[in-house]
Design brief:
The structure is a homodimer. Chain A is α+β, with helices and mostly antiparallel strands. In chain A, about 35% of the residues lie in helices and about 20% in strands. Chain A is built from seven helices and eleven strands. Chain A has a four-stranded antiparallel beta sheet with strand order 1-8-3-6. In chain A, strands 2-7-4-5 form a four-stranded antiparallel beta sheet.
Chain lengths: ~250, ~250
DNA sequence: CGTTATTTTGACCCATGTCAATACGGGTGG
DNA sequence: CCACCCGTATTGACATGGGTCAAAATAACG
């Protein structure tokens, strides 16, 4: 389960510190003494290309991570939600820009300091590795979405992954909050805003989802949706595939 | 700069070993005592989903790394060429399958052993980190290609990256070897084989490239090609972009 | 309540996919 | 060495998913 550390660390915030109890190692804990910064929607946390001086822990809110091509096209590489960290695996300069989608509260830590502390801790190092592996896994998954799924499959996969983030039962109806705009979704899925809209409308017509309002969608028939997603989902614990490859 | 360590390590290969001179740390060196294995074209090195027991160092040849969706669609996540390592950042099970494209010679190392050695070495650890950062960077770059470039831009970007791998002058004509089949290219670029062919034919007609034979292409006008690639290329040392984002 | 941004829908078009035929190349056996 | 065969690549004709352009509807915001 991806978010085990996150769950543990956020819980720990409410646990009184008993000095004799060994702390459970967590990367998130490194940020606790840092001041909390606030960003209003649209505010930039950092820009692609700038020297990557910090690593961030998003306390609450949602950020979009994106790059702009020379001709203005935008590619949203992903989003960062409350509880997640950004920049853990950053190279010398930020590989993308980060902007607040909603009001964001976060903490930052100097990259050098972060690296030094983690590198010096036997318990933290594996956590960093795991984190980076996870990040790579997410990127690979998204590559598949972009490379091989149809517009409808992409949108459904997106909705399902959003639903999964809520931690709700993957069985029946789930209400999904989408603070993210249609345009952000489009740029994330490699589609246009119109296609995203139309696809959502179609899913609505077909009764698979209910659109409460612009930022709230209810997934009615998870089973059908998962079929529509083209099997990209929940690959994590899917049985090994050995289908013969085309050559 | 992503590849600073890498450059250093490959340079070290040509430095005579004086026993009193401290060895220059390199991840590749961990494999030298392992036996070399050979795979014929089409041979599988490992399968997606299998327990990730090993880490690999490709000595020579070319591998394709891919996943198959439940309905048979294939997504090629990337290729591994001589000199490169695969699996450094692998989680518990292989996230994709690896097959030899050409005859491949490689060495393997138990993942546990690899991790233990690297984790125990102050000089190796940063190399691993850098390697993983680089890998993530490659994935991000490819996400952009898949999300936002046209068919022609994708093919050109692919050719250019292949050319860059040769290390040749990025100025005038470069001959590029493509052991990879059109189908592999298509599945890598999120296109169909026909579109890849047509695009290559068009580039040929326009005089931008010359097709020596199926597996050799000459890039005639690098400048024009780089323009066609949509600016995805050489992003590494491009000036920071601060173009206003659409909202 | 206007004013403006975002989303949705419509009409149309084009890049890319699909289906099918042909051409090419590289190996094999006679 | 040649004829054949089969896998790969190329080209053509056609279909269509998704892009583009434009307008209307809805929601957010003073």
């Amino acid at each position: 389960m991806y978010s085990s550390h996150l769950a543990a660390s956020s819980r720990s915030a409410s646990i009184p510190r008993l000095s004799l109890v060994p702390e459970i190692a967590s990367l998130e804990r490194l940020f606790v003494s840092q001041p909390v910064e606030t960003f209003e929607p649209g505010g930039a946390v950092f820009w692609e290309g700038d020297a990557a001086s910090h690593v961030f822990h998003v306390h609450e809110g949602c950020l979009r991570l994106y790059r702009i091509l020379p001709d203005g096209r935008r590619a949203v590489m992903g989003f960062a939600h409350g509880g997640e960290m950004i920049g853990v695996p950053f190279p010398a300069s930020y590989p993308y820009s980060a902007e607040a989608v909603t009001k964001v509260r976060l903490r930052r830590l100097g990259r050098g300091r972060f690296n030094a502390v983690v590198d010096g801790s036997d318990s933290l190092r594996p956590l960093l590795l795991a984190r980076m592996q996870q990040e790579l896994g997410v990127a690979h998954k998204h590559m598949i979405v972009l490379a091989r799924l149809s517009a409808e499959e992409r949108v459904v996969a997106f909705l399902l992954s959003a639903a999964r983030r809520t931690g709700a039962e993957m069985n029946h109806p789930v209400a999904v909050e989408l603070p993210i705009s249609r345009l952000d979704i489009a740029d994330y899925l490699g589609l246009t805003i119109e296609t995203v809209c139309r696809t959502i409308s179609k899913l609505k017509r077909d009764g698979l989802i209910t659109v409460e309002n612009r930022h709230t969608v209810i997934l009615n028939r998870m089973g059908s949706l998962e079929k529509l997603a083209g099997g990209t989902d929940e690959v994590d614990d899917a049985p090994p595939l050995r289908i013969a490859a085309r050559h």
